[in-house]
Amino acid sequence: MSNMFQKLFLPLAVCALLGVSFTACQKKKEAAAGKSGDDLSVALLINGSLGDKSFQDSANNGLTLVKNELGLKTRVAEMGYDESKWEPALRDLCDEGYDIIVCGTWQLTDIVERLTKDYPDQKIIVYDTSVNYANGENKNVYSMEYKQNEGSYLGGVLAAAMSKSGIIGFVGGTDIPVINDFLVGYIQGAKAENPAIKVVPSYVGNFEDTAKAKELAFAQYNIGADVIFSVAARAGNGAIEAAKERGRYSIGVDYDQAMLFQQTDPAMAQRVISSVLKRVDQSILLAVRRAQEGTLPWGTREVLGINENCIGLADNPIYQSEVPAPIRDRISELTEKVKAGQIKIDTAFGMDAGALNAYINSLRP
Fold it and tell me: 320-347 pLDDT, tens per residue?
């Protein structure tokens, strides 16, 4: 049997024995390699709980979009906040043969880097963090980070413009770079709108404790804050509850939270004048679509912002009714300037601890 005949005949024979066509075998091989194809399967690991009306729900919606718009097989694994369960869950998904696994947040970075050594052919998309690409490592991983400072800059402008007291607040989940990136943009935007503005920041210490976030928001309202930006996932809902109870304003995060609360608590929704959108859902859809098309740059990190429709400020009926037209017009103008690169927005990433603390404390009352 000639070498040419072996190359053509043997794959066909194997596929015939398996009862499938050569084309189907080849498509499965390409899918397993993470190449384009309509039959890709995609799994999402949620390292937290759904129902936060924020970050995790946005990621989950990304898989819904992948299923509905791209027609792909999807699965969502919700693992809660017990970190000991995350790595076994990711390994299980690798063993189950999903073509692409999606997961996110900095807590999973080391786990993903360990997995890529044991599963070098497993394609993984990580969001809101990045793996190490030095020396050709993690070639099978695509990382998405976000320019959340762009959206929070606009949120800072909105908060300062809407404030009557000249004091605004910020309730963050934990003191980590990505949360501080929100805060840095917020401070810069607020100061651009009102150089005399004061900003009071607080951290919950986690992303689950709604009671603690509510307590921190009350403390900020007690010293005069009248608009608070909550960046704490599920915990941040406590800060929005405080806004409802005090009749003050809140700015949500990640999702259009006013429209989510409109379904269950219209009075609370009315206190959320806008949300800084961090569209994890849209970024997951974009990445999987590019993987399906064969254009996703595996082995690289990309940072997505307003220009990629992954960051912005929610415009909804509550925003339209509560925020005066001149303020909305100004925010629209600033959005276009950010898109055009005409405004340089500061970032917490790359700041040393001393400079970051000085920045955060610069506008305290």
Answer: 999 999 999 999 999 999 999 999 999 9
For 88-145, what is each residue's pLDDT tens digit? 999 999 999 999 999 998 899 999 999 999 999 999 999 999 999 998 899 999 999 9
CATH class, domain 148-278+324-361, is alpha beta
* Domain 34-146+282-306 fold: Rossmann fold (3.40.50)
The sign one gets for the Cα dihedral 60, 61, 65, 68 is: positive
Query: What residue segments make up the domains of the chain, in order of their start?
Result: 34-146+282-306, 148-278+324-361
| 127 and 61 Cβ atoms separated by less than 8 Å | no
